[in-house]
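Dear all,

This email documents one entry for the complex benchmark we are building for the journal club exercise. For each entry we list the sequence lines for every component of the assembly. Then comes the predicted three-dimensional structure of the complex as a token string, followed by one or two observations. Please use this as the template for your own entries, and keep the labels exactly as they appear.
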Amino acid sequence: MSEYILVAVAWPYASGPRHLGHVAGFGVPADIFARYQRMKGNRVLMISGTDEHGTPVTLAADKEGITPKQLVDRYNEVIGNDLYQLGLSYDLFTRTTTRNHYAVTQDLFKTLYERGYIIVQTTLGAFSASTGQALPDRYIEGTCPICGYSEARGDQCDNCGSQLDPTDLINPRSKVDGQPPVFRDSEHFFLDLPAFAAQLQAWLVQQEHWRPNVRSFSLNMLADLKARAITRDLEWGIPIPLPEYADRNDKKIYVWFDAVIGYLSASIEWAHNQGTPDAWREWWQNPSARHVYFMGKDNIVFHSIIWPSMLLGYGNGGTFGGGQGEPLHLPTNIVSSEFLTMEGKKFSSSRGIVIYVRDFLSRYDPDPLRYFLTIAGPENQDTDFTWAEFVRRNNEELVATWGNLVNRTLTNVYRNFGCVPQPGRLSDVDQGVLDEIAHGFTTVGELIDAARFQAAIKETMRLASLVNNYLSEQEPWRVIKTDRERAATILYVALRCVDNLKLMFTPFLPFSSQQLHAMLGYSGFIAGPLEFREYTESDGSTHRVLTGAYATWVGRWEPTDLPVGQALLQPAPLFKKLDESVVAEELARLEQA
RNA sequence: GCCGGGGUAGCUCAGCGGUUAGAGCGAUUGAUUCAUAAUCAAUAGGUCACGAGUUCAAAUCUCGUCCCCGGUACCA
């Protein structure tokens, strides 16, 4: 019985290229989960896109003297390429500047507004004296009234940690042009979060399967819930869908309000692109579907409080819901990761403590990166990326344990038989190792399903060691000198194990598993490939999306019947051993940046 | 400040009330040589941040202290 599973992946922000920390937090874990579920035969819809509105985009564009749209076009392409090269198997990776996304966002806004969940309040805002541009709190700096630190931000002082208001600062100035800001009243729309407090509470207490930090953090927030502004004084954003704002260019929907709606709008776009415009309902209006969200810990509140409130308020209503069927589905699980640091420090583009995904992949293969981010990534606590550790994990774990097992097995078989050998009678030891590997489909599968990816890949590696152990004990290279049939049996068993491990490694290491699949003499795509497609919307605008024909995958999450006699291809190493000098080279590169 | 998470072997991390606290790597010793000098086995290595408490039993629960990370509602 196949399940409907929505894999909702956090939307990378299109203000610049993304670094390793970003993909460690949401991309790789989500892809492992999605690939496993597809191999298992479930109906997976994995969606996301670039998040393209908001102040940082406009400021970055101003700095370069280009329009926000030009800037996000560039980074949508860069980020899309990164994700493609990493093999993240989105059913749809789109963007928030599509006509479809605007329409869905406006539908939610309008529906929530009509139902009284959006209210108007006046707040004091800061504006640039020269350009009139609104300045978010953190774009204002000045002297901290508490500790006297001269570079305190409008929201917080980094020196003493005090929470501040921009109006508290002594000698406030804009971080953009250094001029003192002008403060004036501004009318904004607020999402009435307290209206959902009771429903959220009832829902959250039931979510005992969530990682504890997500649940307790969210429950805690409920105690002191306030209405939250969902519009900004900004030109760049989705227009407020009310008649009196139709011609106004100074106030737009807040970027986070539209970003979370992306999960729904991307599902709707996917269905439309497939030519089955209502297919999104099979995930969103299906109470037995599972919705699993992946993100970094800084995004929790938007997914556990704000987005659920919006879904509760919308129900099945509005233009897209059509007032029919079940209310839209709330998150089933919110898988939040901790943070990856870089050589002991926080990632920081401005200070050059960063490795961009594209730079990394220009020099190294995607699977070693996916391996590192899974086995040593920030799943349960902050973890550190160091080049020394990356090289070590690559050489001494990935190459030595799994790569070597594949290479020694295939080389032995290829040289002596050329094809999958006919086994003789299996001994208890033979059957024992086959059974243990086959059992991995259960243990590894359960770990992945529970979002315990680190434990899952460790278990898979342990199984690979087991087969190395089996070969060491059985010594087929010695046996073959005296007993060819026994050697054939041993190698057949090892090859069956490798074939099954190949499948178990596929969610983690899709590229090398595909290579191995071919070397074992199989055809077809075990789990791939990804592709870009161009779509044109009704207004004639086009955009590129990342997608793939995943239904054609031949990889199944179950033991294989490796056909006796199947011809193998000439084996070649799956992974490259990295020279120790890589560490010094990369550290020097960081120094220069 | 407040809220949440974390501090465990040389390193990177699991474990989160129950036999003598685990893994991988590193170290030492031995075996092996089919394989990318890749493998396999054994040994050594820890007052589980610190202090107090609850309990028959604490790395695990409670309280306090110190340090690191995130959030703190106008960064996303």
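Observations: Chain A has a mean pLDDT of 92. The first strand of chain A starts at residue 4 and ends at 9.
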